[in-house]
Amino acid sequence: MSAPSNHFAPLARLLHWLMALMILAMLFIGAGMAASVSERHEWLLHLHKPLGIAILLLVVVRLVVRFSTRQPPLPKDLPGWQVLAAKLSHVLLYALMLVLPLLGWAMISAAGDPVMLSSSLQLPSIVPANPTTFAFLRKAHGYLAYLLFLTVLVHLAAALFHGWIRRDGVLESMVRGKD
């Protein structure tokens, strides 16, 4: 059996950085939509929906890759609470990447609107149209988006802490490709 790699698999790194860009774009697009109800920002919604579905599909691929490839080990001298925080924050990130697009899809369905990915591709509704359900899902989607933003900031801070302060190879495991 080969020794564990000090780096993530190339496909895992590609998915990580692609989804990082997509999620940051989604957070900014969502903030732009929440800040205005103007019809002039309708184009943001037309961008937000297919990007959300793309994230949903990619997170499924990403989970398959994560469970089918070896992950680099965390540093042996990392305190137990930091190991636990790393594991829990990754579970939270994956959960939010799955739940937020599904909530958005359900929210749009509950509003009675079609979930259009393009001018000719419509997804089926996943909940019946209902204003009360829509209001609940909209609020939940917003709160969880804030939680995702906070979690991404903490994830970024931890990565920079490992890369710039501890210099323990954790950041490099997702940045560089060779051992």
Tags for this model:
179 residues; mainly alpha; Fumarate Reductase Cytochrome B subunit
Walk me through what this model shows.
By secondary structure, the protein is mainly α. It has a single domain, classed as Up-down Bundle (Fumarate Reductase Cytochrome B subunit). Helix content is 70%, strand content 2%. A two-stranded antiparallel sheet has the order 1-2. The longest helix is centred in the C-terminal third of the chain and has 36 residues, at 131-166. The radius of gyration is 19 Å and the shape is elongated. The chain crosses the membrane at residues 14-38, 50-68, 88-108, 143-165.
CATH C-level class is: Mainly Alpha
Provide the gyration radius in Å: 19 Å
Please tell me what the overall shape is: elongated
Oligomer: single chain
Helix fraction, binned, reads: over 70%
SS class: mainly alpha
Q: Please tell me the total number of domains.
A: 1
Q: Report how far the terminal alpha carbons are from each other.
A: 17 Å
Element pattern in H and E: HHHEEHH
Strand order of the largest sheet: 1-2
Query: Helix segment count?
Result: 5
Give the strand content: under 5%
CATH architecture label name: Up-down Bundle
Low-confidence stretches: none
Overall mean pLDDT score?
A: 91
CATH topology: Fumarate Reductase Cytochrome B subunit
Largest sheet: 2 strands, antiparallel
At the fourth level of CATH, the homologous superfamily is Transmembrane di-heme cytochromes, Chain C
Query: Would you count the extended β strands for me?
Result: 2
